[in-house]
Amino acid sequence: MRVVKEVPHTQFKITIFSWNEKYIIKIEIGQFEQVYKINHMDVAGLDDVVERIDKEFLEETMQRFISMRSSFSDAFKRKNLVK
Q1: Domain spans in the chain, listed from the N-terminal domain onward
Q2: What is the average pLDDT score of the chain?
Q3: Which of 2, 64, 9 is nearest to 32 (CA)?
Q4: pTM of the full predicted structure?
Q5: CB-count exposure of residue 30 (10 Å: 0-12, 13-18, 19+)
């Protein structure tokens, strides 16, 4: 797997990899990450992949991160209640 692009962003670390005929978009914030895989044949190239990482997509990504954090926090709270 090799890094083909890092997309600058103020909140997220966005890295695009190429591996096994797929582009892999990894978006990170803090301890959480989301990964999306796109077949090379489904896009016109790396620039096409980058164009798909638009404002609306990143807003939805942030909502998923918030949900992930909530689920993770709730799991710890449940565990602490069991003790």
Answers
A1: 2-82
A2: 95
A3: 64
A4: 0.90
A5: exposed
pLDDT tens-digit series, residues 26-44: 999 999 999 999 999 999 9
**Looking at the predicted structure, is the pLDDT value of residue 68 above 80?**
yes
Instruction: Give the DSSP letter string of 17-82.
Output: EEETTEEEEEEEETTEEEEEEEEGGGSSSHHHHHHHS-HHHHHHHHHHHHHHHHHHHHHHHHHHHH
- Distance between CA 30 and CA 54 in Å, rounded? 21
**CB neighbours (10 Å) of residue 17?**
17
**Residue 45 in tokens:** 């190239």
